[in-house]
Structures are given as C-alpha cells and as structure tokens.
Design a protein that fits this description.
With 592 residues, the chain is mainly α. It has helices spanning 3-24, 29-55, 60-75, 78-84, 86-93, 113-120, 128-151, 156-172, 186-201, 208-223, 232-253, 293-303, 366-375, 384-393, 395-404, 414-426, 434-439, 448-458, 508-511, 543-551, 554-557, 576-587; strands spanning 99-101, 106-108, 485-487, 519-521. The chain is globular, with a radius of gyration of 27 Å. GO terms for molecular function: cytochrome-c peroxidase activity; electron transfer activity; heme binding; metal ion binding.
C-alpha cells in the first residue's frame, strides 16, 4: 500500500476525533442543566403519549402504571417548573380544584395530573372521554413548558436556590400526599425528586458529602414507601434538613453569590425551622409599611389603648396575649348589649405571615384589617381618621409618630395608625414552640406520643395537606405567596343529633361566587391549645370535637349534601389513640 494511501485515512480519523472531542467536551454548567431539562421534557412527553395509549385500552393496571411513570417524569423537572414557571406548573400538577380569581369574579376549572388521578383511581375507572380531554390539555401545557425551558436564562445562584426550595417542597407537600391523595405515591416520588436535585447539582462538580446525604435519603425513602407508616420526622430531621443545609454550604464553598432579591424566606435559610428565616417584607404591601422598632413600639401601645376607639374598647379586649391573642369565648361581645360579633376571635399570632385576613379573607393586608375592625359597629365603632386626630393632640404619641415616620409633616395620617398596629401584629411570630426546638436539635422537647402525632398529622390524617408546615396555616411553601381557604361544612352544633351546617356562608357573603359558599380561611394551628373554642363559629369546644369532625369527613362525610366541599368526604379511620396522639402533637405548637 502506498504510504500516502495509509496516511490520509489516519489524518482524516484524527480530524474526526478532534471534532468529536471538541463537541463532546463539558459545556458550561448552565448549558448542561438546560440540556438535561430539555431531555427530561421530551421524556415527559413520551410518558404522556404512553399514558394516552394506555387510556385507550381496558387494562386498569397498565393505565395506572403509565400514570405513575408520567408523574415521575414530571417530578424530575418539578424543581424547575415550580421555581421558573409556577403558573405552568399549576396547569401540569395543580390541585384538582377550581382556581378562583376573586377580583375578576371568575373561577377556572382545574387541569393536569391531579385531575387525571381522580379519573383513573376510582374503584372502576370511567369517564374515558374526560380522561382523553385532560391528556390533550396536559400535552398543550407541556409544549409551553418546553418553550419556557428553551427561553429561560439560568444562573448558578437561581439553580442552587431552586434545588434548595425543592427539598423544602418535598417536606412541606411531597411527603404529605398533597398532590397524590388517591395514588399514595408521594413517598416514592420524593425519592425521584431527590435524585433529580442530585443530578442537577452534579453539573457543578463533585461534592461527595452532599451526594452521600442525598443517596442515603433516597435509600431511606425506597425502604419505607408505605404512606401511612412512613416516619416523616426522621426523614426531615436526619435527611432533608441536612441536604438543604448541605446545598447552602456548597453554594458558599463554590463562591456563588446569593441572590440579592429576598422573597418569603431569607436566602440564608438552611432549613424550614431555622430561627428568623421569614422575610416579613415579603408580606408587606408598601415600603412605608415595613416594620421598624419605632413603629412596633407605637403599635404595641395602641393595641392596649382605648384612644384608638374613643371608647373603652381596645384591641386587647378580644385578643389577649395569655390566650395567644384570642379571647377564649365562642364569639366576642358586641358593643350592642346582649349581642355578639359575627365570628370567633382568631389568634393574631403569625397573622403577619399570611396573604389574607379575616375568616372570609376579604382583605389581604393587616393595615386594612385594623381599619375594618376599628370601624366595625359591633367591635370598636370608631374612625381611623378620628383616632389619628386624637393621637395628634397627645404630645407623647405625636413625638413617637414623628420618630417612626420621618417623612411625616404636621399631621398624623390615618394610615400611620394602621401601619403601627400592623407592625406590632407582624412581630407576633416567635417560632419558639417545642416542635421548633426539637427540629433545631433538642431531642428532649418531644416524647414518643407527640412524635407519633406529628407523623399522623403529616400523613394518615392528612392535616398537613391544608395546614402547611412550618406555619401550619393555609399559606403553602416554599413560595408562601398564596393563602388558601377551604369548604368544610362546619356544623352549627357538633353535639346535635341531626347535623346542620352553620348558616354563615363565609367568603360567599362578599364574593357571591357559588364555589366559595361556606369557604373560610385555613388558620394557623400554632398555639391551638390556647385558642379554643374552635372554628369560625366557636361551636367546637374541644380539639377532640374538631378531630371527630375531620375523622368523619366533614359535613359531606356525615351525609350532608355539599357539592363544593374541598375536604375529602372519606373517613380518615383514625383510632381514638391516634386522635389523642395528634392532639398531643398539636400541643407542642404552643410557643414557650
């Protein structure tokens, strides 16, 4: 063979190898993450196609298998979807309840995986036409999702933040069955989400300690997939908390500058139970209303001063500190002798960390809440304008307002009074309960029965699917951007032989939207042992009565027709011992 004929192929091969090696060399981390997401998006579409094919047949086992595969495909991308495209994420995996836009007086029918779950997990799957429509709708959402991935500019700080928040999401909703109420696949899916986070973090290099933590968590989940038996406390304390702290630590080691924008949680948050992790500014409607020590001091004084109402009534009259800022009454006395106000006085503790005020959620801000209470003819029957004038004549208060509001001219504006009171209420979030202390490492703060109660609360009893940890109210993390209400069918008298729904129609009274008839805000359960009697009407004297109501499935579970009830009508089948364990846990939520 002539030497030229031998050398030319060798040179060509060398050139090809050079091109190949150049093209296959590691890409910058963010490009690798985006490529991974695009691949996962294609896999999700493929899984949906297989689900669609199974939906055309009669094999229920195969249909459910394909459904779970589709859910797993989504869970691999959940960290991105929830962080970068929350609206689309709701389309793909939002609650199977109408999305209500009160301001626009409209509700949008739900769609996505949770709606599909309801169509294929009855005893005998039916409604194939509806299932086909839902799959078609989901496919359209996935097209938009892929487009979002392609167009999104990823940054290292955002990706690390999204991964950490995904660990929080797993502990808040994933392991509670929030988005898997019928399939019971939430525990197994937690393992999928953890692996997905590990895969993304590997794009930044090797971190053997963090990878080991995630591997151990995945192994633990894989060995304990039974939903009711899963030890959520062990998972959170031993695994999830260590992983989220590890992610934050590695970000610091890599010198990836934290995000400058602080949302509901401070970026320094390593776990959901770190002290002082909530950014109160996120829950404030204006820069002027951001709390300060000076505003707080005025608010605390006004809270206890009848100068606000111009009568003997103060905020303290119905919100007593020793009762976690409730009053221990069924309903507070009205200013009209012999009458009561419309509803039970709720605790004000942690009220600053929610996005809706009053049981009927008619206001979003604490400032408007303060104004409404002062003006209410049954509560204070005063005027915020007149209160401001009275305070202006008081030299002590005038000087305090000047110091708290440097831009103040001569007048104490009514809004300054509202802001001051709201600032004080926003300070009532100590996060110092025995549960908080146990989560931070003090092993002596909870006993075995309380720990069983926590696991029941987060699992079998399904309490945590409405009372989201760590606030234990209707404000779901990790975004904490929306506060939810529920339709339970609260009874007029839980002791009555014939159950009758309380006549108060809640949010419907001011929205006139049928879907919100008998809907009320989901309040915090922190300090619940101090705030009885319970429910918006104060008709439930004890926590045992409340638990019995939930155990039976609310009004619908008791045979009352209530088509828009959002609480599952299915009985929880909790034993008396399990109920007592849950109540024991609830008492650990009292602030010390």
């Amino acid at each position: 063979m002539p030497l030229r004929r031998f050398i030319l192929p060798v040179i060509a091969l060398f050139v090809l190898l050079s091109v190949y090696c150049t093209n296959s060399s590691p890409k910058p981390g963010m490009e690798m993450v985006k490529d991974l997401l695009i691949t996962q998006s294609d896999s999700l579409n493929l899984s949906l196609n297989q689900l669609d094919e199974a939906a055309r047949g009669r094999d229920t086992t195969l249909l459910r298998k394909r459904f779970l595969e589709t859910r797993n495909a989504f869970k691999k991308m959940e960290w991105f979807c929830e962080y970068y495209a929350p609206g689309l994420s709701r389309e793909v995996n939002g609650p199977p309840l109408p999305e209500v836009e009160v301001e626009e007086n409209k509700s949008t029918e739900p769609s996505g995986l949770q709606v599909i779950e309801e169509l294929i997990y009855p005893a005998q799957p039916s409604e194939k036409e509806n299932l086909k429509l839902e799959i078609t709708s989901l496919r359209a959402s996935l097209v938009r999702l892929k487009s979002t991935i392609v167009q999104t500019e990823l940054t290292e700080a955002h990706v690390f933040d999204a991964c950490k928040l995904e660990i929080f999401r797993i502990t808040i909703t994933g392991i509670t069955g929030f988005d898997t109420p019928l399939s019971g696949s939430g525990i197994a899916e937690a393992g999928v989400s953890l692996k997905a986070v590990a895969g993304v973090l590997q794009m930044f290099g090797k971190n053997e300690a963090l990878q080991k933590q995630i591997d151990q968590a995945v192994s633990y989940v894989g060995q304990h997939v039974d939903f009711n038996a899963f030890d959520r406390m062990t998972f959170i304390r031993v695994y999830a908390n260590q992983i989220s702290k590890g992610i934050l630590k590695w970000q610091n080691e890599l010198k990836i500058k934290p995000l400058e924008t602080e949302l509901a949680l401070y970026n320094k948050a390593g776990t959901l139970f770190d002290s002082g992790i909530f950014n109160i500014k996120h829950f404030v409607n204006s820069a002027e209303a951001i709390p300060s020590p000076e505003k707080l001091a005025i608010g605390k004084a006004l809270f206890n001063d009848p100068i606000v109402s111009g009568s003997v009534r103060t905020c303290n009259s119905c919100h007593k500190p020793e009762l976690a800022f409730s009053d221990g009454l069924i309903k507070s006395p009205s200013l009209t002798p012999g009458e009561s106000v419309q509803r039970n006085a709720p605790t004000l503790m942690y009220a600053g960390l929610q996005n809706a005020q009053f049981y009927d959620m008619r206001f979003s801000s604490l400032e408007n809440q303060a104004m409404d209470v002062i003006a209410n003819k049954d509560e204070m029957h005063g005027s915020i304008e007149e209160a401001a004038k009275r305070l202006e004549k008081d030299q002590r208060y005038y000087l305090l307002f000047q110091k708290a509001f440097p831009a103040m001219e001569k007048e104490i504006k009514p809004r300054f009074v509202m802001i001051a009171i709201a600032s004080y209420i926003r300070s009532l979030s100590p996060f110092n309960s025995r549960l908080d202390q146990y989560m931070r490492g003090d092993n002596q703060k909870m006993n075995p029965n309380e720990l069983k109660g926590f696991n029941l609360f987060m699992g079998k009893a399904k309490c945590a699917t409405c009372h989201f940890m760590p606030l234990f109210n209707g404000t779901a993390g990790p975004s904490f951007s929306n506060t939810e209400g529920e339709v339970l069918g609260v009874l007029q008298d839980p002791k009555a032989k014939k159950p009758i729904i309380d006549s108060d129609e809640g949010r419907y009274n001011w929205t006139k939207m049928d879907v919100l008839k008998f809907a009320f805000k989901t309040p915090t359960l922190r300090n619940i042992a101090l705030t009885g009697p319970y429910m918006h009407n104060g008709a439930y004297e004890t926590l045992e009565e409340v638990m019995d109501f939930y155990n039976k499935g609310g009004a619908a579970g008791m045979g009352i027709k209530l088509d828009n009830q959002t609480l599952s009508p299915d009985p929880l089948n909790l034993s008396e011992k399990e109920i007592q364990d849950i109540i024991a846990f609830l008492k650990t939520l009292n602030d010390q």
